[in-house]
Amino acid sequence: MKIMKQIVPMAMAAVLAFGATGCGTTASSSTTTADGKVEIEYWHINSESFAGPTVTDIVKRFNESQDEIVVKEKYIGEYQSIMQNLQADAAVGTSPDLVQIGWSYKEYFGNNFAYTDPNELFAEYGTEETKNFIDDTYAESVQALAVLDSGEMLGMPYGMSIPMLFLNTDIFAEAGIAVEDLVTWWDVDAAARTIAENTDKYGLYIGESNYVWEMQQLIESNGARYITDGICSIYSPESVEAMELYAGLVHDGSALHVVIEEGRQAYLAGEVGIYMDSVAYTNITTTTTDFTEIMVAPGWEDEELQLPIGGNFLAVTSSTDEKKAATAEFLTWMLDAENMLQWNGVTGYIPPIKSAVGSEFMAENPVIQMAYDNLDSAVPWAAFPGNNGLQAEQILIAMRDEILSSGTPSEEAMKKAQEEINKMY
Amino acid sequence: MVLYPILFAMDNAMKTDQQVYAGLTGWLSNGISLHNYIDIYERVPLLRIIWNTFAISSINTFLTMLVSFLASYVLVYYRFKGSDKIVGLFVWSMFIPFTVTIIPHYLIVSKMQLVNTWMGVVIPQIFSGSAVFLLIQSMRNIPLSLIEVAKLENISDRKIMCHIVLPLVKPQLIATSIWFFALTWNDFIWPNRILKDTTSYTLPLILQSFISGEGGGGFTSAMAMSVITMIIPLILYLIFQKHIIETFTSAGIK
Amino acid sequence: MELNQREKIKSILFLSPAIICFVVFLLIPMLYTVYLSFFDWNMIRPEMDFVGLDNYIKIFTDETTYKVLRNTFSYIGIILITNFCIPFVFAFVCKFVLHKFANFYKTTMFMPGFISLIVGSVIFTWILNPIVGPVALFLKEFGVKMPVWSTTEGLVIVVISLITSWKSFGYNFIMLYSAVSGVSGEVIEAAQLDNIPLRKIFLQIVAPMTGFTSFYMFVMTIIQGLTYVISPIDVLTKGGPNYGSSNIVYAAYFKAFYMFDTGGAAAMAVITLVIFGFGLFLLNEVVGKLVYYEN
Fold first, then answer.
1. Which of A204, A241, C175, C200 has the fewest CB atoms within 10 Å of its CB?
2. So what's the architecture of A163-309+382-423 in CATH?
3. Which CATH class is domain A38-161+310-375?
């Protein structure tokens, strides 16, 4: 103990001195590194288990391929964490250069942050070859996803996902149902009930994330619309019908109503027959289980299928000319087919670029091909305009739980939610 | 019941996801496999992160203890007009919910250009009402007569502080330090605000990246990460157990 | 006690770091938060719009506020039972009835105190998974189907409170054990000789005689409980279902970091502070009188 008495304070003092010099930390406020390269920052949501290493690789190879620009990539968290950090940075006047913005934050981002329209970016900072980069790389319909009501383009679609159904073929076999039987939500309803009756498993689980994306697919495919002419129009006979189907299954025990982590765990452990979630889950489900078959989320009988696009777009938030030019160049690297598809292969997101069509990649990834084929039915993630968009989404989430947990009739809950949302406008 | 979650995590950290989902239960049924740990080591700057966590915890603990010790000494032995009020104020400050201070803390730290640094995490936490409270309690347990005798013999204040009081409260000081060390080690919300990239993360932050995320997290990797995060504070606890329990026990005897 | 000049300087010197930190990092932020609560801001826009009491009005006219408030009281109630009453009784039992196990319990139960709640929440998400978690499977053996607590109002609060009690039980137990130990053994023995039932001994002798510590633990349990609860809520339910697991502390946190409503979050935080302060004051009055009379 005596020796401890002397060593400990000394060690403490040393660590303290170390810390006081801010040693071992990185301050990200310089534009150029010591050797005159331009440094840009790229924020993303690719965690260790979700293509993080892939991003690191793409960035590393870019840095090695030239000596003017150094890209620093940072994993920030989920889309919501990215918004938080953007906001925190803005409060003190800094910003990254390239950011993945979740589609649900499109309106909020567009209204509150400074960004550069990609068309302008390449027109001004692009090289001869890349002046028309956006039109060269993206189909019109895909570009349209990232355009605000006012006509400005916010960024470049990067990660695109649509809702899919993951099916447990073992359970289907046990319940005596064929996968091909599932064509509409009515079929899903019947299948779920059959599964619940004939086996001791759950028939259906619709992912309940902290977004209303899954619900959007269900309801809007039946003809309802979250937003019409800028105000909430969720209360309609079609949406009530759709919701009632869902609620009915939950209330009689055929469908599961749990938080998303628990639901996923349940599916992976083989307790759920049909699981609805993003195509980004393809890899996890197919590597962890051997009973999974995947199909695109279905529509209803007479109405048009609506597949809301999830994922993210890339926004350019650089503040200086130098950085904008550097970012433009990095973008040409990122959206180059080879690098893009490398990312898509691991994430499961649908490639947004024209050059992916008919490529070998698509042939090797049938699920993504399947999703891609359905892009005609793709619609933007419903984003309520203005600053109240986030609040509106929360109201809808609460509505969903009120219907499913408390048993409030869909009619009543949806009407109330619509009134509440429109009150804010 | 208390130990179950700990053992659970350790057990699952040694399996693979497929096995877990296929229903492989049973303690250590896959044998002792360190593949998850190796995996983590390769994917994230693990040693760096552990170092960050260790450094931040140490610095914070040291500074907090220093500040609190000085303050408690004065408040216990130099009773002046209003010193009781200050004690009350400090104790009362323990009851302030963090939501009231977190936003301004962030603004202050960023104005000081300390975002993404260790000091940025540490500085707003230096003052701790509970540290002061615990130290005051332990100092009050020292018989006043001892101090008075020392004063009569004209021993300098500095000597009294360092050679009489300090050794006598050492066990409590150590115990409180370990407690704070663990608290800082496990802190998530505040470091999450301040530390920006993976090389500056602390363990709870990197753990988060294994759990949440768009593509879902790997369950067994998350378990392995949890074990790594838990281990050091637990080891410290087991070593200093006796001191720790004694300190908190005597703090309770008013 | 009058201080001489040198002592005065010393006391100022030694106290100053603590006081400076207190003022800069506690007092000023608190005041700034109050200031923020009168604006509509999201930390990004350079202009902050002064809206006066608007944020407060919005909070008080929002239905969910009342639900959140009710939840807060539910949380407090349950947390007090699991983290205060039960450890207290247990401490009493350990001290006066079952002497042998006290040390063992103290050691093992304190362990979770050193583990991050994020770690705990993640592990518990799996353990308490109502369909495939070990607890569910165990119950299945007995034919009991585990309720889906994460989306059941009411139950969700209970389970989340239990998770935090896993972490705090040990600490509270130790503190209360020591408080109980402070009660002189003779009084207990005398009471036992008089054939007073154990229950009464606990309630009417031991509990009041532990005075200050019990009070401190009572308040700490509430405050710590509400703060600890934030982690599991954030990991598991984000306040759902339908705000069923949210409480005033989480609501302020959510408003600030998910809704980016800085002004609203500040208002919520101020309201929380006021409620806590008022509660503390009330408690002080009530308990103060009780303790006084017992002596």
1. C200
2. 3-Layer(aba) Sandwich (3.40)
3. alpha beta
